[in-house]
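Batch manifest, entry 17 of 40.
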Amino acid sequence: MSSPRLSADMRIIYHNTMAIVAVCRKAGLDIFGVTKGAGGLPAVARAMLAGGVVGIADSRLANLERLQKSGISAPLMLLRSPTRDEIQRAVAVADIILCSTLATIQALSQAAVQQRREIAIIPMVEMGDRREGIMPEHVRDLVTAGGKLPGIRIRGLGANLACLAGTLPTPAKITNLEKMAHDLGPGCASEFVLSAGNSSALALVYHDEWPLLSLPAHLRIGESILLGWDVITKQAIPGTSQAAFRFYAEVIEIAKKPSLPGGSTGCNAFDEHIEPLDRGTHWRAVLALGRQDLGAGRIMPVDPGIEVIGMTSDHTILAVDQAEDRIVVGSELEFRLDYGGLLAAMTSPYVGKIIKE
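Output type: structure tokens
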């Protein structure tokens, strides 16, 4: 029995990057390629850089260190504020750090002085998604105080949307971010860059709704390059492929079974109340795949005649009555992944990785 495995095609990531970079450049935007969805894989970073991104961004220091050790010389951006224990490592590896508290910037300043480095800081501003970010009324105080610290250069302002609350990017939010930068004064904002959003902002670009800005700006793009889709609608982005990643798992049982539980039911192993669909007695396949492999991620069968019924710790149950090909024990089935599934598969020790360069 083979373990689940993930196949990653660097040629597709390269072409997806080129397609998205070309459209964004017409809107005056640079792109930082985000590798966290691929576990900081150096091959992915190289494909993104070949495709035209100006730097690489990741939320995990271990991933940035891996990229640095692999010879990636492009600017490296740390997407998440470092913890106190990570300060020294962050200064050693990151060229740009997204941060939202003065206490962290002060700690980064001390480490930068010790390491004789200058670190670019982009303060993150709370723009409605209620994740990280300083409230707009406190931006001036943070920028003023942070800009006086040795080893620190306040490089601009940043925003994050559509991650926690699902708050969508709008032209007004983007122009408001730029206005905050200009309100800091010409001497401050003249060298600023706007880190204006993530993959969720691409819809504005593709719908010709991106506002004309007077400051240089970039987007931090990961999911849309890796999976080739609009992260809000899950629709394909023009010019991209959705086949950069494919997931494979083996069938360990197939049998005809009733679709409804036999007896009274309660919560399942994950404290969920399940209301199964009455399919009568039908063909079910069981995969050697579970949440230990994919966490809360989803798999989507490439065969449209196969449907995922559910997943437990170590098993995934499929309805296969309409499968295009005959399925037997030992059959290996092919799936697409959502972003959560990709994150989990790339970091799971139980999932094999096949890298196609």
